Amino acid sequence: MPHPVMFSDDDPGLAALRAIAIGLPGAYEKVSHGRPGFFATKMFASYGGSSKVTRPPGHSAAAGEMVRYPYSMLVKVDDAERAALMQDDRFYYPAYVGGSGWLGLDFTAAEVDWDEVRELVDASFRLVAPTRLIAELDRR
Question: Of 24, 68, 88, 112, whose CB has the highest number of CB atoms within 10 Å?
Fold first, then answer.
């Protein structure tokens, strides 16, 4: 049974993320688990996510309840940067993929800094893309 579609193609946040992600060498988009994912062999970004609430402050949800972040992105982050990013309230630990090095950035928590998004997507791409695609990016 396929996952339900959990996004709207006319979402401006998705459009901006799509423009950044698809601009990377060899990048393509496909819907995965009902959400747009951006791939360069492996996934390096996704639009939308969810998290299990572990600490209720800042959320109306009770601990253990799933909270959806439909206007957000997920990216893989370097282990050395994770602790610093998690100090920022805009970031969340995404369900299912957080343990594999991913973090979510909530686009509704503050005005989106698209230069920061570009840097995060670039860094995530570099963590998962084949060497030849990273070399192509560096030549640009």
Answer: 24
**CA gap 18, 46 in Å, rounded:** 9
- Give me 35's structure tokens: 């959400």
Length of the chain, in residues:
140
Nearest to 59, CA basis, from 121, 108, 132:
108
d(CA 10, CA 53): 29
* Number of domains observed in the structure of the chain: 1
Question: 83 lies in a domain?
Answer: yes
CA 52 to chain centroid, in Å, comes to 16
Residue at 28 is within a domain: yes
Residues contacting 70, CB < 8 A, separation 6+: 6, 7, 48
Q: Residue 109 and residue 125: Cα distance in Å, rounded?
A: 24
pTM of the model: 0.89
Q: What is the pLDDT of residues 40-90, one digit of tens each?
A: 999 999 999 999 866 545 555 566 788 899 999 999 999 999 999 999 999
- DSSP annotation string for 58-69: T-SSPTT-EEEE
